[in-house]
Amino acid sequence: MEKMIVTNSNLKNRKIQIQKRNLIWLVAIFIFFSTYFYVPPAYSDLGRYYDLIETLSSFNNIIYAVLLQQEQDVDFIFTLTMLGALKVGIKLQFVTALVCSVYWVIIARAFIKPINKINSFILLCFLGVLFFPNMMEVIGTARNVMAFLFLFTGFQYWSNNKKIWSVICFVLSIFTHFSCLIHITLFLAVLFVYKIWFYKYPGWTNLLCLVFPVFTYVAGATIINGIFLSPVMQDLFGDSAGYGSYVAKEAEKITYDFVGIGQIAYLLSHIFVIYVLINIDRRNSLSRVMVMVFFSMITMSYAFNYNLLVRFFLCMAFFYSTYVSDCISNLNKKTNLLRLFLTLSSVLLILIFVWNYHGLIMKYWQF
């Protein structure tokens, strides 16, 4: 009898593992083909990068071409990958599709790995997690996304206490996109502060989840924005439109056509979801603190720096995925409000995704 129970348990676990694997494969296939047939506008970051790679491919020596590009950027891994692919006859959109697919697979796997059952609630939250990243921003900033692949892998290695592999991944992420140094520094700082402070004084977690995101937004809109607009900073760095505020970007309409009502709804819905979620959840967990700090960087960059806003959102997707999975794993009768909000927020994220992109499919995707 005992042997039969063990066998049934093993069969059930095997069935769940197959279901989880199938979900991840579905995500990979859907994202790959959605990205492969995407044609970036010439003025987008990816469109300009395609033009750069085409220009550099005229050099017979790939290393020389990369060194030439490094006169402007110290990060070279994405350029080297794209050039190498082009030289052997692989299309650039294939590399982009592969990078974006792996990005979403890591996010999906981070969510699904701890889950021990699959039901309608889990599937709804799973879709909410998948639709958290802005698809147009992910595809349009493939170089950042490739850097985040190394970054996410480094986070996972660190959590599994494989520090050497984690450091290797962090170095690779920096030399794919140098801005990852900010995310790594922030990640390590949160780990350190959590260990010496949040872990010992759980009351501070609840207080800072309520206050810190608001404080960082006010600081970004006043102090930091004033520093960046000061004559000294303007003389040092010049008037860089790429580092203007989100409001300036929206007004100038210099990025994708989705910047406007749909994009504002996307940003505000995500800000609302995260802020309410971390304040409903009262646990003193590392995942909650990590989300709170990275989310605070989003509210701060919303006020003064569009590029930082995009990068923090793309990186935040990994932490959001692990955090929602952590919340689900700790649900009980006392957390019915959290369960309800996870359901409603997942529906909201799905609706915002559909609303934001329904008019873009025929415009940017060519089959």
Describe the structure.
It is built from 18 helices and no strands. The model is unreliable at 245-261 (pLDDT under 50). 35% of the residues are buried. By secondary structure, it is an all-alpha fold. It has helices at residues 2-36, 45-56, 62-69, 77-87, 92-112, 120-130, 135-140, 142-159, 163-174, 180-198, 202-228, 231-237, 246-252, 261-280, 286-304, 306-329, 336-357, 361-364. The termini are far apart. The protein has one domain (2-364).
Taken as a percent bin, the fraction of beta residues is under 5%
Shape from CA axes? globular
Poorly predicted parts: 245-261
Encode the helix/strand succession as letters.
HHHHHHHHHHHHHHHHHH
The chain-level mean pLDDT equals: 81
Number of strands: 0
Query: Which secondary-structure class do the elements indicate?
Result: mainly alpha
Specify the helix fraction band.
over 70%
Q: Which secondary structure elements does this structure contain, and how are they paired or packed?
A:
Blueprint (H helix, E strand, L loop, with lengths): L1 H35 L8 H12 L5 H8 L7 H11 L4 H21 L7 H11 L4 H6 L1 H18 L3 H12 L5 H19 L3 H27 L2 H7 L8 H7 L8 H20 L5 H19 L1 H24 L6 H22 L3 H4 L3
Helix pairs in contact: 1-5, 3-4, 5-8, 5-16, 6-16, 6-17, 8-9, 8-16, 10-15, 11-15, 14-15, 14-17, 15-16
List keywords for this structure.
about 375 residues, mainly alpha, 18 helices, globular
What's the quick description here?
Helix 5 (92-112) packs parallel to helix 8 (142-159) and helix 6 (120-130) packs antiparallel against helix 16 (306-329). The chain has 18 helices and no strands. It is 77% helix and 0% strand.
